[in-house]
């Protein structure tokens, strides 16, 4: 199982200039992947900007959005944005997608929360067309460079529609920030949907957990603040933050036993030394 680390782009009032430095240190210390958390209505750095900064600051580490709120974007714009980041990185991006749930994240006129599932299905076709170099909006000109690849995609969420979308249209599944016991049920649902869709092989399975090592109290408070509007899920997210080596190593073993392909550990502060602290424990 690969071990990745998140970028601190979702930390409240993050010092934005830390992001490329964080990315370089993560690559130097040997993490497999850099991830970004997506949300608009929060005082943070946009996930696409964080990924672009990481792409320019590194050369080998994989990149993933976990997850980007796809339906808050016009499909053509997101397709070009993702292709651009993937191109800058040299083909290292995986686009982890979700449909979003918080109403305040939907700020683009005509792209509100109503009908977002159907819009997501339509946008998937748009992404593929854009990445294939097809003209858009009745024009004659492609909007991405020749040679642009089909960016790999993963989907989150555990609804029947989300599982269907994952199985029919992507490379795998991202479980939300939850304990391994709950993620196991989500992974089983993803595998079942994959099989029901007639897909060969296995879906790529990615797990997410938070950590706070240097200043656990601050980290717990930050996670609580980020999920403040999510009801009971806030308590689940805070309770799942790993604050010591024993908890981290136990989580790694549990997710590995579940058959996860990757566990990405998300920072809850923007303290750059957290990268080294985590690496010393898990790598």
Beta-strand residue percentage: 15-25%
CATH class: Alpha Beta
> What is the CA–CA distance across the termini?
11 Å
Number of domains: 1
Supply the helix-strand structural class. Answer: alpha/beta
CATH topology, by name, is TIM Barrel
Shape: globular
CATH homology superfamily: Luciferase-like domain
Annotated CATH architecture = Alpha-Beta Barrel
How do you describe this structure in short?
The protein has 283 residues and is of the alpha/beta class. The chain has helices at residues 18-29, 47-57, 75-89, 116-131, 160-169, 180-196, 216-226, 232-239, 245-258, 273-282; strands at residues 2-6, 33-36, 62-65, 68-69, 93-98, 153-155, 172-177, 204-211, 262-267.
Keywords:
alpha/beta; Luciferase; globular; single chain; 10 helices; oxidoreductase; Luciferase-like_sf; 283 residues
How would you describe what is shown here?
This protein has 283 residues and is an alpha/beta fold. The protein has one domain: TIM Barrel (Alpha-Beta Barrel), CATH 3.20.20.30. Helices cover 44% and strands 16% of the residues. It has 10 helices and 9 strands. Strands 1, 2, 3, 4, 5, 6, 7, 8 and 9 form a 9-stranded parallel beta sheet that branches. Strand 2, helix 2 and strand 3 form a beta-alpha-beta unit. Helix 1 packs across helix 2 and helix 7 runs antiparallel to helix 8. The protein is globular and about 55 Å long. The mean pLDDT is 94. It comes from Actinoplanes couchii. InterPro entries: Luciferase-like_dom (IPR011251), Luciferase-like_sf (IPR036661), SsuD_RutA_monooxygenase (IPR050172).
């Amino acid at each position: 199982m690969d071990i990745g680390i998140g970028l601190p782009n979702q930390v409240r009032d993050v010092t934005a200039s830390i992001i490329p430095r964080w990315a370089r240190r993560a690559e130097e210390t040997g993490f497999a992947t850099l991830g970004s958390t997506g949300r608009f209505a929060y005082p943070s750095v946009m996930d696409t900007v964080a990924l672009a900064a990481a792409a320019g600051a590194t050369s080998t580490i994989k990149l993933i959005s976990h997850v980007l709120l796809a339906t808050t974007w016009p499909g053509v714009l997101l397709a070009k944005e993702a292709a651009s980041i993937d191109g800058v990185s040299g083909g290292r991006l995986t686009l982890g997608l979700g449909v979003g749930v918080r109403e305040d994240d939907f700020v683009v006129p005509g792209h509100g929360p109503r009908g977002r599932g159907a819009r997501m299905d339509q946008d998937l076709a748009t992404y593929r067309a854009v990445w294939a170099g097809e003209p858009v909006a009745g024009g004659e000109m492609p909007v991405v460079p020749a040679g642009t690849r089909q960016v790999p995609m993963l989907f989150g969420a555990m609804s029947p529609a989300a599982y269907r979308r994952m199985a029919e249209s992507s490379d795998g599944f991202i479980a939300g920030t939850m304990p391994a016991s709950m993620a196991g049920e989500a992974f089983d649902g993803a595998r079942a949907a994959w099989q029901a869709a007639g897909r060969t092989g296995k879906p790529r399975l990615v797990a997410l957990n938070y950590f706070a090592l240097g200043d656990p109290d601050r980290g717990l408070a930050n996670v609580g603040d980020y999920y403040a509007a999510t009801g009971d899920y806030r308590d689940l997210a805070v309770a799942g933050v790993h604050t010591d080596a024993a908890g981290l190593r136990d989580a790694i073993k549990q997710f590995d036993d579940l058959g996860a392909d990757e566990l990405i550990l998300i920072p809850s502060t923007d303290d750059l030394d957290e990268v080294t602290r985590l690496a010393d424990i898990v790598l």
